[in-house]
Amino acid sequence: MKDHDETGEGRMIHPTPQLDQLEDGPWPSFVTGLKRLRDEGAPNNQKMMNDLLGQLNHSYENRLGYWKGGTVSVFGYGGGIIPRFSEVAEKFPESKEFHTLRVMPPAGFHYTTDILRKLCDIWERHGSGLIAFHGQSGDIMFQGCTTENTQKAFDELNEIGFDLGGAGPALRTAMSCVGHARCEQSCYDEVRAHRTIINKLLDEMHRPSLPYKFKFKFSGCANDCVNAIHRADFAVIGTWRDGIKINQEKVKEHIKEKGRRYTTDTVLKMCPTRAISLNDDDTLEIDNKSCVRCMHCINVMTKALSPGDDRGISIMVGGKRALKIGDLMGIMVVPFMKLETDEDFEKLEDFAERLVEFFADNALEHERIGEAIDRIGLPAFLEAMEIEPDPNMVNHPRTSCYVRTDDFDEEAAKWFERQAAETAAE
Amino acid sequence: MNNQAKTPRVPDEVGVPDPFQYMHPVLKANYGNWDWHDRPRPGVLRHVSKSGDVIYTVRAGTQRQMDVFTVRKLCDIGDQYADGHVRFTTRSNIEYMVADESKVASLIEALEEAGFPVGGTGASVSMISHTQGWLHCDIPGTDASGVVKGLMDMLHKEFVQEKMPNRLRITTSCCQINCGGQGDIAVNVQYTKPPKINHDLVANVCERPAVVARCPVAAIRPAMVNGKPSLEVDEKKCICCGACYPPCPPMQINGDDSTKIAIWVGGKHSNARSKPTFHKLAVANLPNNAPHWPEVQDVVRRIVKAYKSDAQHWERMGEWIDRIGWKRFFEMTDLAFTKHHLETWTGARNTMNMSAHLHF
After folding, report:
1. What is the CATH number of the domain that holds B221?
2. What is the CATH number of domain A175-241+310-425?
3. Do B147 and B275 lie in a common domain?
4. Which pLDDT does position A324 carry in this prediction?
5. Is the CB of residue A358 less than 8 Å away from at least one CB of chain B?
6. Within a domain: residue B5?
7. Entry pTM
8. Per-residue pLDDT reduced to its tens digit, B239-283
């Protein structure tokens, strides 16, 4: 195949018969976008995208990928760049280096069009012109950069206030839901929690030295819009301790509009703990001692019901996908923590720091925190983190009798002491 | 070049950018003070603050992998109709916030005219959360954007309307690491053959003890092959998961025919009603048939159709199957139930039916 060093007339375009078939249909086509960069983009984008499209079409034909990793970084950092070198560079030389810069987005994914345009301009100059909003870890993914241009692109992005995200065995880029910015169901200040923790632990992101990846995600309520329980080593989920707030007039309006049968079927019957009753006068009664804060009834009756006033967070630890011992969801380790005052945020920051430290000290290489907890047992983990056991941490108490219980009375005494202390504090 | 240019620039470790500098002024002014919301029509949210302020959000689908022209087009629309502020959802939908209700209709029109479908709210099929695939990943078994393009073309109608029983979240992943995550329907690569080892390269490319340690079933051991230190796989033990491939690329797990696609159902992130769940195997061994993956599309279509026709309002995929039973699910979708649906991994026994509860 011909070298593509010259542009302009005589420029050869790789045929892309496989990809061409992905331009029809009502959904926006990424292929059309790639082709536009090839045909109308900046000269450097054009060259790179022509060969990139050629390689991608080659993958479609052979049903194989042709990228390999390597080592590329920017000055001062050890992570944040995903290096990609083509294994078929002799055919597609202009995209032989096609690295990605993982860049942390503003918490909650808010942008002005002005800043988006600046990001585009930088990437047009130094990269391929292809950007993903966003990757599965929550990064803005600036895809397609030569090794030489990586530093230039980063410098310019950094000058306008953006920083690299995580990659490799390190603290990873976090995600937070829209939360306080536009959601009445939000139970804490997600932006502050997100920025407080990540910016405090930034060194763990930029200079990877943990046993394996460590992810934080922040959801404002149990709807968990950023999928924290499944996907985060450290999931912060908003909740409340007092009762659900009910606006009975709005309840009546809802029933009038939707009907009694519909309300019974979709609200009462679907409550996981059967905690809701419908009164004869079309008002609702909620047994808040039985309520598990699942959010369902609040989702259905958005005007009539809302989370209580005594809001805070739960922390769940250990979520991850298959590698290596199988899927794990986060387990409840802190059922409730207030998160309003500066002191509350300091407490959260301190807890996160101690947890990451525990991970660094105790996990094996390539072991996630969830796997480490499975290996050592939850009691050992709780003891190390100075957390007392709580019934909210389990579905039910143990069913196996294979346990030594000769200090049971001392442990029980501690429980009653804690209970008494909590009652006194209230 | 002067000396200054040769001195590397020290990064300014700014961390997570402060979003308030980019946030829509109505969102900023009402931060933490919202009262309620509703959805005037599919693709549009109306949030009302305790202060009385109202903000309309118009949500539109994107291709996620965007060229600068597409991003600039989205910005032009934002400048014209949405005060120059946007945000993205976790599923790569773009959201425009509009304080002035009268601008909503023209914004929708502009988005649709530019080819961005408005929807993805409430009981709809939102954009598929997906991975990188052949475009950029170093270990992919398939493409992501291509599979997603085909599926979203097929499900476009369910994106722009809210006629599903509840939200339907689809994910795709190009290897078994499953970066796409859990979904009501998950379309994931499933390898079917042990890795093919290039013994000439292993010693130079792979840290052998690390690769041995990576195997979930201890099927890899060091070996001398043709006089060179390499690795060998006990193919009877191998579960074809591909975990050895990222740390050791000479252990090629992908094959043009052996890389297959499996479809999983019933994963759920939210805690609403039932607790979060993992997705479960519906069917494996579908061909990796680029560029349209018609066999995958056919199965997804059948599952979506069965769910849509039979689930009750607010039931998610997994909750629906819980109610009707797996027997009926396999009947309704015309899929086979095989020995491969029986869990064999750690905790397998907990997935068995230890009761006399039966579905007929």
Report:
1. 3.30.70.20
2. 3.30.413.10
3. yes
4. 86
5. no
6. no
7. 0.96
8. 999 999 999 999 999 998 999 999 999 999 999 999 999 999 999
Helix, strand or coil for residue A103? strand
For residue A249, pLDDT over 90 is answered with yes
Distance from the Cα of A74 to chain B's closest Cα (Å) equals 9
Query: Domain A1-166 belongs to what topology?
Result: Alpha-Beta Plaits (3.30.70)
Q: What is the DSSP letter of B217?
A: T
The tens digit of pLDDT for each residue in B116-153 reads 999 999 999 999 999 999 999 999 999 989 999 999 99
Co-location of B300 and B232 in the same domain = no
- Pull the structure tokens for residue A311: 């809001």
Contacts of B150 in chain A (CB under 8 A): 22, 25
Is residue A356 within 8 Å of residue A215, measured between CB atoms?
Answer: no
What residues make up the domain containing B337? 133-192+256-351
Other C-beta atoms closer than 10 Å to the C-beta of A11 total 13
CB contact under 8 A, B243 and A299: no
End-to-end CA distance of chain B: give it in Å, rounded. Answer: 80
Residues B185 and B223 reside in one and the same domain: no
What tokens appear for B65 in the block?
Answer: 């992998």
Q: For residues B269 and A216, what is the distance between their CA atoms, to the nearest angstrom?
A: 15
Architecture of domain A245-306: 2-Layer Sandwich (3.30)
Q: What is the DSSP letter of A95?
A: G
Kindly give, in sequence order, each residue whose CB lies less than 8 Å from that of residue A381, ignoring residues fewer than 6 positions away: A333, A358, A372, A373
Assess contact for B156 and B124: CB atoms under 8 A.
no
Contact by Cβ (8 Å): B172, B231: no
CATH number at residue B305: 3.30.413.10
Cβ partners under 8 Å of residue B22, min gap 6: A106, A110, A111, A112, A115, B85
A122-177 pLDDT per residue, tens: 999 999 999 999 999 999 999 999 999 999 999 999 999 999 999 999 999 999 99
Give which of B139, B99, B107, B143 is closest to B291, Cα–Cα.
Answer: B143
Q: How far apart are CA A286 and CA A243, in angstroms?
A: 8
Instruction: List, for residues B273-327, the tens digit of each pLDDT value.
Output: 999 999 999 999 999 999 999 999 999 999 999 999 999 999 999 999 999 999 9
Mean pLDDT (whole number) for A34-46: 97
Q: How far is A207 from chain B (nearest CA, A)?
A: 12
**Pairwise CB contact (< 8 Å): A107 & B313:** no
Nearest to A348 by CA among A183, A175, A198: A198
Cα–chain center distance at B20: 28
- Alpha-carbon gap: A111 to the closest alpha carbon of chain B (Å): 5
SS3 content of chain A, % helix, strand, coil (to 5): 40, 15, 45
